[in-house]
């Protein structure tokens, strides 16, 4: 049976709808994957920092034995980070470690020999870099969530979000001011 | 979240750059064939058909070679060396940070021997990209400033500016070489016999000379127009990656007060750079003052 003009039009519309559904499905998948990947990146950097701590503590102990409370705080914060489960908790533990490290580096200013130690300088540089990467990874995580949520909340994405059962996700809470202050302190 | 945290969206820029790159390559293809034809005629070649075939083969192989090797050509022309991680830890750290912030793959890193503060990015797409900074930049810029410069270059990479800009640079190079060869070849042919054939070719010689002079000038203007706008948008992406305009501003200010013109850089690769290597009016880059002013408003 030959198709009339209306028949062709119908087929065209159906094909168009299928293409649109597929492209939205893919966009949700791509943006969702991006969020998961950036989450992985935060973890990689947090772990990297945790790995650097024991070495740092050993070096500091060699020059500044008496700063027991500060050293202990760093070791404890590291333990808390390694043991933490769930993103929010890990990020919180990371923040605690970061401020403990800030105090440790401030104290190091009083020990010229420690400050001149090659190993210490290297560790300090690496920790600063890791710190940067953590904050960039968080930024990227939040950016990825923003794109995802925009897709979920704006028309016509909101319709497909309903069909596919996608819901807006939660941002990581970090204040911008806090981050910049720490970045300066490390330098 | 406020608007400025909107993730930078390269999609429009990417599509535009891919299309422009294709168009440019097609134009170059035509120009080389036209040049081949005119030069062939001017030389009084009898078999114009085989000249055209040779021209087509040359232009296709030339386009393929530049498309896949433009980054290497650019790096070679500035005498850049691959940067090893052991020797350039800060450089690697900074680039890694920005790749995390931007979600772009890690480019290959190079260093070029120049006391100037400068940098460029090249490659055909983000997966095959390179970033090259000068020795001067690594020595004179602090961490945040270097980060600003690197973020600017990754902005070019993310938007596929690198493909288009490097193609333009390499094309400009070849067109000026071809026209130079042609102009010089005329000297050797001048004052030949006075046969009829020679007179018939005179018109083609004139056309050839005009083409040979016009082509590089034309390409130069195209090049200028394209690279100014790109610098501003790469600055904007740099700020979106680092969220820290003072870094980039600091780098630009150091360039403004410390850079001296670098004569070793060939003109063809100038538009690739972070800042204009020559300090000339009507150059390939917007003025540093203008860039700083816009960054301060962000």
List keywords for this structure.
heterodimer; A: mainly alpha; 7 helices; 84% helix; disordered C terminus; B: 298 residues; alpha+beta; four-stranded mixed sheet
Name the beta content range of chain A.
Answer: under 5%
| Largest sheet, strands/sense/barrel of chain A | none
- What's the helix-strand series of chain B? HHEHEEEHHHHHH
Distance between the termini of chain A: 78 Å
Tally of distinct domains of chain B: 1
Report Rg of chain A: 25 Å
Low-confidence sequence ranges of chain A: 175-187
Strand content of chain B: 5-15%
What is the topological layout?
The complex is a heterodimer of chains A (187) and B (298).
Chain A: H1 5-63, H2 68-83, H3 87-108, H4 112-116, H5 118-153, H6 157-164, H7 176-186
Chain B: H1 11-42, H2 48-77, E1 81-82, H3 89-102, E2 108-112, E3 119-123, E4 129-134, H4 135-140, H5 143-158, H6 161-189, H7 196-242, H8 245-258, H9 288-297
Parallel strand pairs in B: 2-4
Antiparallel strand pairs in B: 1-2, 3-4
Helix pairs in contact in B: 1-2, 1-6, 1-7, 2-6, 3-5, 5-7, 5-8, 6-7, 8-9
In short:
The complex is a heterodimer of chains A (187) and B (298). By secondary structure, chain A is an all-alpha fold. Chain A has 7 helices and no strands.
Please explain how this structure is put together.
The complex is a heterodimer of chains A (187) and B (298). Chain A is mostly helical and 187 residues long. Chain A contains seven helices and no strands. The longest helix of chain A has 59 residues, at 5-63. The N and C termini of chain A lie far apart (78 Å). Mean pLDDT of chain A is 83; it is low at 175-187. With 298 residues, chain B is of the alpha+beta class. Chain B has one domain. A four-stranded mixed sheet of chain B has the order 1-2-4-3, with helices on both faces. The longest helix of chain B has 47 residues, at 196-242. In chain B, 43% of the residues are buried. Chain A binds chain B through residues 34, 38, 41, 45, 125, 128-129, 132-133, 136-137, 139-140, 142-144, 146-147, 171, 176, 180, 187, and chain B through 1, 5-7, 89-90, 93-94, 96-98, 100-103, 143, 241, 243-244.
């Amino acid at each position: 049976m030959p198709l009339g003009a209306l028949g062709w039009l119908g087929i065209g519309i159906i094909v168009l709808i299928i293409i649109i559904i597929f492209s939205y499905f893919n966009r949700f998948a791509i943006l969702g994957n991006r969020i998961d990947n950036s989450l992985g990146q935060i973890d990689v950097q947090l772990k990297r920092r945790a790995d650097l701590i024991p070495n740092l503590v050993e070096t500091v102990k060699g020059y500044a034995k008496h700063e027991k409370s500060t050293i202990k705080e760093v070791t404890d914060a590291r333990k808390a980070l390694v043991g933490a489960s769930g993103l929010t908790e890990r990020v919180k533990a990371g923040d605690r470690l970061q401020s403990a490290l800030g105090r440790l580096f401030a104290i190091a200013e009083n020990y010229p020999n420690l400050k001149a130690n090659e190993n210490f300088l290297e560790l300090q540089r690496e920790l600063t870099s890791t710190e940067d990467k953590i904050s960039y990874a968080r930024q990227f995580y939040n950016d990825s969530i923003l794109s995802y949520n925009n897709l979920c909340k704006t028309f016509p994405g909101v319709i497909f979000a309903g069909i596919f059962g996608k819901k807006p996700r939660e941002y990581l809470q970090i204040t911008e001011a806090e981050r910049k202050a720490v970045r300066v302190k490390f330098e | 979240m406020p608007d400025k945290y909107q993730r930078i969206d390269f999609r429009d820029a990417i599509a535009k750059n891919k299309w422009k790159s294709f168009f440019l390559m097609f134009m170059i293809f035509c120009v080389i064939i036209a040049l081949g034809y005119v030069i062939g005629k001017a030389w009084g070649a009898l078999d114009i058909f085989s000249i055209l075939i040779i021209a087509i083969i040359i232009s296709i192989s030339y386009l393929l070679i530049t498309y896949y090797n433009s980054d290497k050509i650019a790096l070679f022309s500035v005498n850049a060396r691959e940067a090893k991680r052991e020797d350039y830890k800060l450089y690697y750290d900074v680039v890694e940070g920005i790749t995390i912030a931007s979600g772009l793959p890690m480019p290959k890193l190079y260093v070029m021997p120049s006391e100037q503060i400068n940098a460029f990015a090249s490659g055909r797409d983000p997966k095959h990209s390179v970033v090259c900074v000068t020795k001067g930049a690594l020595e004179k810029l602090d961490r945040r400033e270097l980060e600003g410069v690197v973020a600017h270059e990754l902005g070019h990479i993310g938007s596929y500016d690198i493909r288009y800009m490097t193609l333009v640079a390499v094309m400009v190079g070849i067109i000026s070489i071809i026209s130079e060869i042609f102009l010089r070849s005329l000297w050797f042919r001048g004052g030949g016999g006075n046969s009829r054939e020679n007179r018939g070719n005179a018109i083609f010689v004139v056309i050839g000379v005009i083409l040979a002079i016009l082509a590089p000038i034309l390409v130069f203007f195209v090049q200028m127009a394209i690279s100014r706008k790109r610098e501003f948008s790469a600055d904007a992406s740099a700020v979106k990656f680092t969220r820290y305009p003072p870094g980039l501003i600091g780098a630009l200010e150091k360039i403004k007060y410390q850079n001296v013109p670098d004569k070793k850089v060939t003109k063809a690769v100038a538009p690739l750079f972070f800042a204009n290597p020559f300090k000339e009016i009507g150059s390939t880059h917007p003025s540093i003052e203008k860039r700083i002013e816009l960054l301060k408003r962000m």
